[in-house]
Amino acid sequence: MNDPTGHPDPGTAVMAAPTGEVVTASTGASPVTPASPAGSPSIARRIGPSDLRVFPIALSGNVFGWTADAPTTTAILDRYAELGGTFIDTADSYAGGRSEIMIGNWMSASRRRHQTTIATKVGKGPDNPGLSARAIHQAVEASLRRLRVDAIDLLYLHIDDDEVPFEETLAAVDDLISDGKVRWFGGSHHTGNRLIEARIAVGVLGVAPMIAVQNHYNLMHRTEYEGDLARVAAQLDLGVMPRFALAGGFLTGKYRSRADVERLRRGGEATRYLTRAGLRTLAALDRVAAETGTSVTTASLAWLLSRPRVVAPVVSVSEPAQLDAVMAAPSTPLSRQQLTELDRVSA
């Protein structure tokens, strides 16, 4: 039973429902139904009002062709698929297009195109910058060639281009949807007000609406989403795909001091979180991880998956072994007490 605030009772585990809402399973005397395995279709979530149902962790291709060479990229993609992953996120600007090429080569060689939802982004690519109609059409055609697909499942506007009227951008995307080259689209780096402006323009033009938004959101970076975007996402029925879901690696627990950052030669982004508040959050995650028999990484993502409208955090890894903790998050229930504690220390 829920309390008047809408939270489940303290002894209740919170798990992800297929469409992104939260369902509860009592942890009282009755046995709890085991969580679905990673590859089970029942764990999939629907993106907004679309027909896209995806595994609740999106694998980012931002390192493919950059810090991850072709063999490493293939190994990461293979492991992600083995663990039940179905949702790959990239952009035309990642590694100058090499990320899309590597993903396209992998899908062709593994014959997994029909089991994979592909999201890519346009607007930041060096060859077709901006969101004019011409830039969008050329960027999408180039992405289709690199990905070796006939259609992009989810196209993000990678920037908010205020030099181009929304009407022009929206009409261009709608043309691509009508032509069967794009199935659905969403925004990235858009404020709540701009998303509302876009929806108003959609109503005037009679074109396809956004169904998703990708935004910066994690335990260490909450205000941007929870202040404005959460309300707008609910109002517009947008699926939310948080990027920087692990705060540049800080929420994996690997970086507890500046010495850790220097020793591992990574995690420059994590340095900013080496504060009292950040270390308190890690301590709380340590406790939750111990209680659930998982890891700090898993607990961090499980918290994120409990948030309203969140469909699939976008997570990047540098080696296949890192995926095990990441992919365990959708089947890791957190109790109300655990969620409340993480809310409190990270506020």
Automatic annotation (TrEMBL):
A single GO CC term for this protein reads: cytosol
Q: Matching SUPFAM superfamilies, A to Z?
A: NAD(P)-linked oxidoreductase (SSF51430)
| Superkingdom per UniProt | Bacteria
Stored Pfam families: Aldo_ket_red
Q: Which InterPro entries match?
A: AKR_Detox_Biosynth (IPR050523), NAD(P)_OxRdtase_dom_sf (IPR036812), NADP_OxRdtase_dom (IPR023210)
Chain segments carrying region Disordered: 24-44
Q: Which residues form the NADP-dependent oxidoreductase domain?
A: 67-345
* Protein name as annotated: Aldo/keto reductase
Species for this entry: Microcella daejeonensis
